[in-house]
């Protein structure tokens, strides 16, 4: 008995070390929590998120074969390089996995992200030449292709029906033992930047698993949150939402705050914590460490561009990076409102008023807005089309940023799912993909009508895409981009009726949509932080009403496109950081400035304690576990009373105190740090230099291709 109580005590003490603050609640799960968790698993089952034993064993067998294949190849290379036989016998080599498979949350038919680790005498050129040729000769390997000049170089192939993306890292070691641990920072010494990037995925994934209290509860919760994000259309690192690694870190932080909770409770607490999170305060799983290797890390005190990151989620492995630098003002607004909506739904579920299936219902993107931009990318062959849309999709967030900076636009909401072009709107032999961006126009006071010209916003985007394609020698005859403004009632010209009209979808449809229908494409957007490179597509959607929704809807009721003689044509291109006052302590951003006013980067604050100082948890401020209660509903409408006005008020007060307690539990070794200026959040974050259009790159010469620059203008009239 004494031994058992001693074990429990040491377990509770160890839980206090997860994360940079103490836990919000150490309460053990109740019987009802296990019941809700089982119902959550049942609700996820139809979406194909769980793999059966046979499929799992097949993956393990394929990875075993690939690991032996790598060892065999490294031994052959070692012999060619005249290593002594004694060294060849123990030279080793190993396959590591990362991303969703390593985290244990991969879905049926998902690919595997893997890393080939080789000793110092094996060169990267060997990997892309001799190993590539060896793979070619293997009868079980199909669809083999190498992308050597990518930001993170990769070989992609199917091994016995399983898609694998294989990276390469050469360590400064004479041999690679089977028990090699990649978590230690010392393995990064004397490596080139491409090897460091390739190692980053494994190191981040392993660190996340190390930092969660209960891996099984973490995995089940992450499966639910990933499914929810895909269903709600906010799962895409490339388009400015969050990717797999970012969602994993948010779930991991929730697990740290509720170390003993089971999945049903953790899903609810996830929405509670992040619906009340005051961005741009960073989410960290551990105190950042400096390994003195002089690698660039996320640090808004040193890097001015880091101060413009709107929703920082910092990877726990050195070199620490922000995995969400693609997030824009619009995508953050959309995700914030989805967190609030998720909280209201899980409140209902845990009160027995709704089923878990409600959480996974897709919104109706094509009924949400009155105005849309239709972006179409087309090419004359299927191969060119796949290559072209990969580039165009990776730059759509540039277009969203351009639209956000337009003084007449409040929100630009891109639907992550692309759609095939309709036969009526394309040439018979063209391959076309379309993306839709919902637009909310700003309410203009004291104006009967206003003319809006989006030509420059569209054209600067097409120029960016063209320059990138030109720089990597991708452009081919027939590749073009076209952007068109349409009203909601015109969407039927581009989409089938079942997408435009509200309609309940069957479980089979939901399952197909969840798994995605398109194959993975090579990402050209230089994003290496979302190492899982998960490109699952979601369903057409709209976000629930957000803070701007009320005035925005009022604007939409009073402003609309009028019938004018102006042709709303497309722009056609045709080939012919934030300073920190404390870690995870929220600050309230200042009201958005007018879009025409450029924000100046704030001066780096004197907060040496922020990234290096000790975080001292205040145990007294950690609130107790609260009873389940409804929060205010998302539109500001009063929530239904749980029992009585007094109980309702107490439930709300407990809920607010819970997360407020999290932030107030943080104190710094420098209590009198200077106040930190807030950032003008109306300005889109500054993109990394590699994402900006290269002004030195010339536009196409007239004798090599044709650029058609049509205008896209519309007029809004006030309805009296």
UniProtKB/TrEMBL annotation:
It is found in: Nucleus. Residues 217-361 form the Poly(A) polymerase central domain. It comes from the Eukaryota. Residues 19-212 form the Poly(A) polymerase nucleotidyltransferase domain. The keyword Secreted does not apply. It catalyses: RNA(n) + ATP = RNA(n)-3'-adenine ribonucleotide + diphosphate. GO terms for molecular function: ATP binding; metal ion binding; poly(A) RNA polymerase activity; RNA binding. Residues 527-536, 644-655 have a biased composition (Basic and acidic residues). Its EC number is 2.7.7.19. Residues 595-610 have a biased composition (Low complexity). It is an enzyme of class 2 (transferase). Its cofactor is Mg(2+); Mn(2+). One of its GO terms (biological process) is mRNA processing. Residues 511-521 have a biased composition (Polar residues). One of its GO terms (cellular component) is nucleus. Its main location: nucleus. Residues 365-430 form the Poly(A) polymerase RNA-binding domain. Residues 506-561, 584-655, 673-703 are annotated as: Disordered. Keywords: ATP-binding, Magnesium, Manganese, Metal-binding, mRNA processing, Nucleotide-binding, Nucleus, RNA-binding, Transferase. Belongs to the poly(A) polymerase family. This is polynucleotide adenylyltransferase. The gene is LOC115249578.
